[in-house]
Amino acid sequence: RARPRARPRGPMEKVAAEEITKLGADGEDEEQGRPRWPAVQPEIPRQARYFCFGPWCGCCPAYVLLAPFVGAFLYVLGFAALLVVVGLALLAVCLLGCPLCSVYVYQRFWECWPWGWQVDLYVKATYLAYQ
Question: Rounded mean pLDDT of 84-90?
Answer without folding.
Answer: 97
